[in-house]
Design goal:
With about 350 residues, this protein is of the alpha/beta class. It folds into two domains: about 10-155, no CATH class; about 175-345, NAD(P)-binding Rossmann-like Domain (Rossmann fold), CATH 3.40.50.720. The chain has eleven helices and 14 strands. Helix 1 packs across helix 2 (about 60-75) and helix 10 crosses helix 11. It starts with 11 loop residues before the first strand and ends with a helix. Bound molecules: NADP nicotinamide-adenine-dinucleotide phosphate. NADP nicotinamide-adenine-dinucleotide phosphate binds near residues 243 and 291.
Length: about 350
């Protein structure tokens, strides 16, 4: 076993000099270096923007979805959707730990883990696709993956069902960032609040904004609105298509007596919702774009075009203690945990 680059550059096939995330193609041979971890994978949680795009391309035909996923991995050595640029994460069982990592970590062969780095940088082999769950974006497979020395993971907690933990950990950055960004008494708008990341953010927003704050949930359609209502976390619910920015702005102003959000968190899984997030945020406020369907160009040029001076944050999937914060949300909110159980467990 040889010691390799901690970030995994030794597995980049092209272009030379790139890091694995930005690479077109990775070496996904499953013989590990001494600072890598080999995992037998059971379930992939495909990123929602990616899965939505694959479903659309396949016309919801499971055979075609499977073929698209196999083709992506065959071409790239990783599940890196070339259209959305996004990945997802996996759960599996540790099969081997490289020599130089032995004893350095609180991890053993046989432990069940969830990866906390994206599938867009994870060498992956899919031997077979066992089941595709259209409603949860989870795909059961037989296969293997490699974690680099710098790759983070969470040992799956014993007190939560594994698929529920997988679903929550996929979006762990969002509630953890929300916890850091929301100020007491603030007005927080969550776009896509009825989804997985949106509902976890609702909990943190309500908790941090406190009794003097206002939490506004925006989503589109009766099913999403019902999910939000059941959680009893939003002060205002707006049933609107977030791809229609002026309509959304008017509705927000109507619901808040003319006020705009101090902080907007975008958790939508489709493109073209940047301007709703920007228009609904006050000058000097912050927009946190967690959505992978966000276009940097649309946000930057769009904000300039409407003369909006807002701080815009790229949705870093990682922030310190994000896994612990996210699993804690499920432990402390029984309604949210129940909803996640019904959908994901
Ligand atoms: N930054 C990161 O590291 C990171 C990590 C993981 C995921 N993500 C991204 O975060 C986003 C959310 O992920 P998720 O797993 O929470 O997705 P999700 O569970 O699918 O939630 C998306 C929500 O957006 C709603 N929505 C769809 N179209 C809408 C519209 N036109 N107007 C208003 N709302 C609309 C959906 O409603 P319906 O269910 O009714 O369609 C759903 O409630 C995705 O873009 C994903 O790629 C980012």
């Amino acid at each position: 076993m040889t010691l390799a680059c901690p970030f995994g550059t030794h597995r980049v096939l092209e272009p030379a000099g790139a890091l694995p995330q930005g690479a077109k193609r990775l070496d996904n041979r499953m013989e590990i270096h001494s600072n890598e971890i080999l995992v037998d994978c059971e379930t992939l949680n495909i990123d929602s923007a990616s899965f939505t795009q694959i479903r659309q391309e396949a016309g919801d035909d499971k055979g075609r979805i499977a073929q698209i996923m196999l083709d992506i991995v065959k071409q790239r050595g990783k599940h890196h959707n070339p259209v959305t640029g996004s990945g997802g994460m996996f759960i599996g069982t540790v099969k081997a730990i490289g020599d130089s990592l032995q004893g350095q970590r609180d991890l053993n062969v046989g432990d069940r883990i969830a990866s906390l780095v994206s599938l867009t940088l994870t060498p992956l082999v899919i031997e077979s696709i066992e089941a595709i769950h259209l409603d949860t974006a989870q795909v059961d497979i037989k296969g293997q993956a490699v974690l680099f020395e710098s790759g983070i993971y969470a040992v799956l907690p014993p007190d939560l069902p594994q698929k529920l933990a997988l679903a929550a950990l996929d979006v762990a950055g969002a509630p953890a960032q929300t916890a850091k960004l929301v100020r007491p008494g603030g007005t927080v708008l969550i776009v896509g609040a009825g989804g997985k990341s949106g509902s976890l953010c609702l909990h943190e927003a309500k908790k941090r904004a406190g009794v003097s704050g206002t939490v506004i949930a925006m989503d589109y359609g009766a099913a999403a609105v019902k999910r939000i209502e059941q959680l009893e976390l939003a002060d205002v619910i707006l049933d609107l298509d977030a791809t229609k920015p002026v309509e959304c702005l008017r509705a927000l102003q109507g619901a808040t007596g003319g006020g705009l959000a101090d902080l907007t968190i975008n958790c939508v899984n489709i493109p073209q919702t940047e301007m709703t997030s920007i228009l609904c945020t006050r000058d000097g406020g912050t927009v946190y774009f967690f959505s992978m369907a966000t276009s940097f160009t649309a946000a930057a040029l769009g904000a300039e075009g409407v003369g909006k001076d807002v701080n815009m944050l790229i949705g870093n999937g990682y922030t310190k203690n994000h896994a612990e914060i996210t699993l804690q949300v499920l432990r402390e909110n029984p309604r949210l945990r129940q909803q996640f159980m019904e959908i994901y467990a």
